[in-house]
Structure formats: structure tokens, C-alpha cells
TrEMBL record:
Subunit structure: Homodimer.
Origin: domain of life: Bacteria
Protein name: Asparagine--tRNA ligase
Gene Ontology cellular component annotations, sorted alphabetically: cytoplasm
Protein species of origin: Mucilaginibacter oryzae
Gene name of the encoded protein: asnS
């Protein structure tokens, strides 16, 4: 029996008049003659030509959309439009039938909501095939970028006893019988009897442990799942998402920004080169979607143009303080168009403000630095002004914040003082503070939300559509 050849390879084949075996799922079957077969190796289908006069009618009936087939035949140059090669079938074997009456994925346009409810089957659509091939390439490119630069991939724990940001939006981890939780004499939960002998949770970030690695290995990165029990039912938040967190000894904030910008450009370029077909497909998909919008709401650039634009332009770098000035003077602020008006210095920026800066004012990715210390985490390096910290957020068109990072506070006294001010217990983080006791040095890092990157590269509008099985409030199906 001949080996299976993937459809992607067949479509690129220089050779014709050869015997091939191809396997996949039926996307369409027309005139009892032409099967469009797809195996997920590419968005493009291969056309199978059926000799229907010499094929058992019972078999023909079983060639329905969604059925899994194995086809043996000859690869020939195609005369038809839209393809250069096709397979003339010798033998068709039905590997798995698919009842057209009950199969949810019909050969028509389904809404994204419908497909989310059928996430177990949505991989079989062209849109989701493209999205998940792109997601794969981006993940690989992230590793390649860091590996080429000598970074060490560090696996930080998924179960931790610390809540890195002190935000408290964590999922608890326990093996207590929830109907019978051990209590102390005073009626509190007796965590001493729990699995780890203390309260634990799923990690919200690998940063603190990442810093420990960087204090010896110099350049590390993490790439793993993170969990946040935030009840934000938005198109940009998931309860389970993947984060990339490089941490680099001896880097300052400018090095940190350079690293983040280089990385983003590298992985976007990789995707453009590697998945040109998928990006072209998603570009067309978006153009169709844009047509349903009023003229003034349509995007000025296509998806491909947006990605190219991002590669070919320096990200705009400015301070939080400068951004506030711009926002205060902006037309939407003066015309009271923002839901959250920008009045004074010191408040956190809302996504509407971030998007105004990126999409309307600068019209390109923006890096904001030196935020007020009150709205940022305890570990960020304090500036001499006593008011701001060496933070940097990268804002992307259509997304808002895609990266959050900072130069870290490497001075023990300053760090402890800030922790006291913010009510963060220093004893619990003794191991973190040890890095500042024993050979501390300037260092910096950031967190890139992987799904937000995939959102940008695919041009999709909802983060739930760029992770195979999204976790969000009231949803953990599949
Ligand atoms: P936001 O203000 O958008 O909630 P954040 O300030 O909470 O973001 P960080 O704690 O700095 O985010 O996390 C680093 C990165 O992780 C963010 O820049 C973003 O790309 C991503 N991220 C944060 N929360 C989520 C989430 N719930 N789902 C998906 N990605 C997220
Ligand atoms: Mn958040």
C-alpha cells in the first residue's frame, strides 16, 4: 500500500502522472463527480475526480460532507479552474461516514457563536483551520526567536502559593472534600490538612520564578498557561491563557522595549512567510466582514497590510504622562465621547484610550512607559521622581494592551519599602527577596499574552476564537 501524501504536498507537487494515496474529510461533493477533500495540512482542498459511471451507487451515497475518506488514484495536471492538479480516483474507501442530517458543520457560512458552541468540530472549517495553523506557527516562532538568542526555556510552576500581582483573581487548588472541609478550633479552613499544607492556587504569571532563573542563567523565557479568575466577560480576556515571559539580567527598560519589539516583528514575519495562504484567506474573510459595516467604520488597511505595516514601522515610544496630555486634548475627550473621560494624571488607561492612541492618534503600535506607581505592581523599578515606575505596556491596533512589562526593582530597600506600602507580606516572598540580597543586578522582562498576539495576526475579533477550547465565565465545555 502506498504511503499517504498530505494534500499540501500534493498541491505543490512538480510531478504528475503518479499514483498517490490521499486521506481527508469531504468539504464538498458536487455533480456526483468532484470531491473537495481537506486534511488540514493546508486551507486548500484537493479535487478528487470520481468516475461515477463505474462507481457503486451505494458508495457514492456515502460520500457526504464531513465523511472521512481514503482515496487511491493518479495525480494529474488539472484543466479545471482554481487548481493545478487533481486526483483521478481509482479506489475510494469510506473510513468514517458522516450523516448529513445531523452533522452540524454544513457547507455554508456559520456564525462564530455557533461554531464556538461546536468547538469540537470547528477545526473543520477553513477559518479555524487557518487560525490554528497560524497559532502553531506563532508558538514555534516564539521558541525559535528566543532559542536563536541563547535564551533558556524555563518551566515555572503552575501550582503556586503566591499571587504575583496581589490581585487575588486566582483559582484555588485543593484536594479537600468540598462538602467536608476541615476546620480549625476557631472555625477557619484548616489548610494544614490540605494537600500542600497551605493555600495554593493556579499561577497568574511565571514572572517571579522567572526572575530567579534570570539571576543565574541571565536570559530566560517561559511559555506556559496562566489562569485568572477575573470576571471580565470581554473579547480580550480568557480565564486560561498562554503567556510568554522573558526575563533578562542586565537589561534596562530600553533593552526590554527593544527585545519586545524585535520579538513581535520576528514572529509576525515568520507567520507571514510560513502561512501566506492562511493569512491571505483570513484577509479575504475580513474584507467580506468589513463590507457589512458602514463606510466610516471600515478599516483603512487589510489584514496583510496591517501586518506588513507593523513590521515596517518603529513602534511609537512615549511616557504615560505624555499620553495623558494627548488624551486630554483629544477630540473624543473634549466632545465627551469616552465612556471614561480623561481628566487628571494618575488614573489607569481604559481600552478605549489605548485604542484611540494606537488607532487614531499614532496609527501604529505604541509603547507607553513610566506609569504612576499606584496603578502598577510592586516589583517595578521606581523612578527618581517618586511618582512613576519603569513600566512599559505595548498597545496594538484592534487589541489594546498586548504586552505588559517593566524594569524590575533590584534595590532591596526600595523593594521592601514598596511592598510594605502596598501591604504585600515580605516573609511569604522571602525567596524572591533573596535575589536582591545575594548578587542583585538590574534586570527587566515582560509578559506577552499569546492569544492577543494570535488575535492580531489572524484579524479575529474575539479571543475565544483563537484558542482551541476557550475557558471563560460559565464555560468549560469540551
Ligand atoms: P489587561 O489590562 O488587558 O487586563 P493586564 O494588565 O491584566 O491586562 P498583565 O498582568 O500585564 O495584563 O499580563 C501580561 C499580558 O497578558 C497582557 O499584556 C495581555 O497580553 C495578557 N493578558 C492578561 N490578562 C489576560 C486574559 N485574561 N486573557 C488573555 N490574555 C491576558
Ligand atoms: Mn487584567
Amino acid at each position: 500500500m502506498s504511503q499517504r501524501t498530505k494534500i499540501k504536498a500534493l498541491l505543490q507537487s512538480q510531478q504528475t502522472e503518479i499514483d498517490v494515496t490521499v486521506k481527508g474529510w469531504v468539504r464538498a461533493f458536487r455533480s456526483n463527480r468532484f470531491i473537495a477533500l481537506n486534511d488540514g495540512s493546508t486551507n486548500n482542498n484537493i479535487q478528487i475526480v470520481v468516475d461515477f459511471e463505474n462507481t457503486d451507487p451505494a458508495l457514492l451515497k456515502r460520500i457526504t460532507v464531513g465523511a472521512a475518506l481514503s482515496v487511491q488514484g493518479k495525480l494529474i495536471a488539472s484543466l479545471g479552474k482554481g487548481q493545478t492538479v487533481e486526483v483521478v480516483a481509482n479506489e475510494i474507501e469510506i473510513l468514517g461516514d458522516c450523516d448529513p442530517e445531523t452533522y452540524p458543520i454544513q457547507p455554508k457560512k456559520h456564525s462564530l457563536e455557533f461554531l464556538r458552541e461546536n468547538a469540537h468540530l470547528r477545526f473543520r472549517t477553513s477559518t479555524f483551520g487557518a487560525i490554528f495553523r497560524l497559532r502553531n506557527s506563532l508558538a514555534f516562532a516564539v521558541h525559535r526567536f528566543f532559542q536563536e538568542r541563547g535564551f533558556v526555556y524555563l518551566h515555572t510552576p503552575i501550582i503556586t502559593a503566591s499571587d504575583a500581582e496581589g490581585a487575588g483573581e486566582t483559582f484555588h487548588v485543593t484536594n479537600f472534600d468540598l462538602n467536608n472541609i476541615p476546620k480549625t478550633d476557631t472555625g477557619e479552613i484548616d489548610f494544614k490538612q490540605d494537600f500542600f499544607g497551605r493555600p495554593t492556587n493556579l499561577t497568574v504569571s511565571g514572572q517571579l520564578e522567572g526572575e530567579l532563573g534570570a539571576m543565574a542563567l541571565s536570559d530566560i523565557y517561559t511559555f506556559g498557561p496562566t489562569f485568572r479568575a477575573e470576571n471580565s466577560n470581554t473579547t480580550r480576556h480568557l480565564a486560561e491563557f498562554w503567556m510568554i515571559e522573558p526575563e533578562v539580567a542586565f537589561n534596562d527598560l530600553v533593552d526590554n522595549m527593544d527585545l519586545a519589539e524585535d520579538m513581535l516583528k520576528y514572529v509576525i514575519k515568520y507567520a507571514l512567510d510560513k502561512n501566506a495562504d492562511d493569512i491571505e484567506f483570513l484577509t479575504q474573510r475580513l474584507l467580506e466582514e468589513e463590507k457589512t459595516k458602514p463606510q466610516n467604520e471600515r478599516s483603512e488597511m487589510t489584514l496583510t497590510e496591517k501586518l506588513q505595516f507593523c513590521l515596517n514601522n518603529d513602534f511609537e515610544r512615549l511616557t504615560y504622562t505624555e499620553a495623558i496630555e494627548i488624551l486630554k486634548e483629544s477630540t473624543p475627550n473634549k466632545k465627551k465621547k469616552f465612556v471614561y473621560p480623561v481628566e487628571g494624571w494618575g488614573t489607569d488607561l481604559q481600552s478605549e484610550h489605548e485604542r484611540y492612541l494606537v488607532e487614531k492618534h499614532f496609527k501604529k503600535p505604541v509603547i507607553l512607559t513610566d506609569y504612576p506607581k499606584e496603578i502598577k505592581a510592586f516589583y517595578m523599578r521606581q523612578n527618581d521622581d517618586g511618582k512613576t515606575v519603569r513600566a512599559m505596556d505595548i498597545l496594538f491596533p484592534g487589541i489594546g494592551e498586548i504586552v505588559g512589562g517593566s524594569q524590575r526593582e533590584e534595590r532591596l530597600d526600595k523593594l521592601e519599602q514598596r511592598m510594605h506600602e502596598m501591604g504585600i507580606p515580605t516573609q511569604e516572598l522571602w525567596w524572591y527577596l533573596d535575589t536582591r540580597r545575594f548578587g542583585s543586578c538590574p534586570h527587566a522582562g515582560f509578559g506577552l499574552g499569546f492569544e492577543r498576539l494570535v488575535l492580531f495576526v489572524t484579524g479575529m475579533g474575539n479571543i475565544r476564537d483563537v484558542i482551541p477550547f476557550p475557558r471563560f465565565p460559565k464555560n468549560a465545555e469540551f
